[in-house]
Amino acid sequence: MSKNLTPFSCDDTSALAKSLRKQLQQRETFPSHVEMLNILAKAVGLQNFQQLRQQHAEQSSPTSCLSVPIPKRLMPFVSVDYIMHTWPAKYAIQQQSLWFFWCRFQYQQSYSERQVNDILKGFLDFEDFALIRRELCNQKLLKRTDDGRFYWRASATPPEGFEPLADYWPN
């Protein structure tokens, strides 16, 4: 399972250091991981780490022009801006993820291998676009010529939850 990263920054490093020092001096024991997260959040003027996470979530709310909901089973792997940040470990969810990428290609349009790679890279936050391309072909969601020079989206019916994505593609 991947972590949801919460960035941390402060405007005044000196004030942060003073606050951390003061909070650590008041403690009798070394703080646990969660306690340390709360200390950091308090040092920048928040009540606790939960509030820091909430603040980050509000700042990174979806600004995409796409208003199509992400299918529930893919939510842990796809960010609000429709970027897949991790490849699922479970085979069934991997298969659903392929539909997420299948939806990125237009019907009746031919793509070079480089174009396919560029489209996939645009929706991945990890480097293995070739894995996705191969799996799309293996599952017959993308077809290609025998020499691999041209690819096109196969005609298929997406599973439930992917219908709204099926007719959307980036300009």
Radius of gyration: 22 Å
What sort of overall outline do the alpha carbons produce when their principal axes are compared? elongated
The end-to-end span amounts to 32 Å
Structural class: mainly alpha
Named CATH architecture of the largest domain: Orthogonal Bundle
Which helices and strands appear, and what pairs or packs with what?
Blueprint: H1 13-25, H2 33-43, H3 49-59, H4 91-102, E1 110-112, H5 113-121, H6 129-138, E2 142-144, E3 150-153, H7 163-166
Antiparallel strand pairs: 1-3, 2-3
Quick overview:
This protein is mainly α and 171 residues long. The protein has helices at 13-25, 33-43, 49-59, 91-102, 113-121, 129-138, 163-166, and strands spanning 110-112, 142-144, 150-153. The chain is built from seven helices and three strands, in the order H-H-H-H-E-H-H-E-E-H.
Which features does this protein show?
171 residues; mainly alpha; Arc Repressor Mutant, subunit A; three-stranded antiparallel beta sheet
Describe the 3D structure:
This protein has 171 residues and is mostly helical. It has 2 domains: 13-59, no CATH class; 72-166, Arc Repressor Mutant, subunit A, CATH 1.10.10. The protein is built from 7 helices and 3 strands. The chain has helices at residues 13-25, 33-43, 49-59, 91-102, 113-121, 129-138, 163-166; strands spanning 110-112, 142-144, 150-153. The protein has a 3-stranded antiparallel sheet with strand order 1-3-2. Helix 1 (13-25) crosses helix 2 (33-43). Residues 61-65 have low confidence and may be disordered.
